[in-house]
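dude i think i finally got it to work??
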Amino acid sequence: MERRMTKEIRIGNRKIGGETRFSFSRCNTKTEDAAATVAQILKLEQAGCDIIRVAVPTMEAAEPEGDQTPDPHSVGGRYSF
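look at this
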C-alpha cells in the first residue's frame, strides 16, 4: 500500500501529516470518572501515544467533582485543552 502525502499541521506542540509519524488514541473511560480518565491518559502517554482524544458528551460530564478531580496541569502541563 502506498502512503499518500498529506499536508503537515500542528496540534499543540505535535506535528501530524506530511512525513511525520505519530501515535493517536482515545480514552474509553466515562468522562465523569475524572480519576480513571486521567489515569488512562497517563498510561497512554507512557506507552508512547502522541495525541489522546477525550470525548465530553454532556455538560454534566465536563463539571468537576470537587477535590476528587485530578488537575492534569499538575502532571507537567503537557496537555492542551
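The beta strands are 9-11, 14-16, 24-26, 51-53.
im so relieved honestly
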